[in-house]
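target protein:
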Amino acid sequence: MNILVLCTGNSARSILLESLFNTLGAGRVRAYSAGSNPTGKVHPQSLVLLEELGHDTSGARSKSWDEFAAEGAPEMDMVITVCASAAGETCPVWPGAPVRAHWGVKDPAAAAQPDWDAAFRAAYATLEQRAKALLEMPFETMSPADLSQQLKRIGEIA
């Protein structure tokens, strides 16, 4: 199952959740992340935290969601937005009509630099709970309607 995680800048929250899915999913899912208006670089605190927690960050990069709407892009089964602005934007048409959900998380990159560690850890903890909740489910065999309902429920986990 392919999951695309979207946020406007694709530098923090979406990068964290992409890495969480790819690490915790252990081959069961393949996650990607992108942004509607990517910053062009991953937030340095995203990399610091992920590396500290044992995630492979070698492939982490900030990229446009246009890459995943282009011909030859992997077909997505789920698209999850993690910021309100990306959730409200008109997204490209994704091949395969994936199930969509919004898992809003406060932007840790908006914190003042002295508060980065705490802000990124808080965002990571929330996203980790949500990723684990999804991965505990038999989502491969769920109907799109049931999956959509469960994704919405998971998005309410604080």
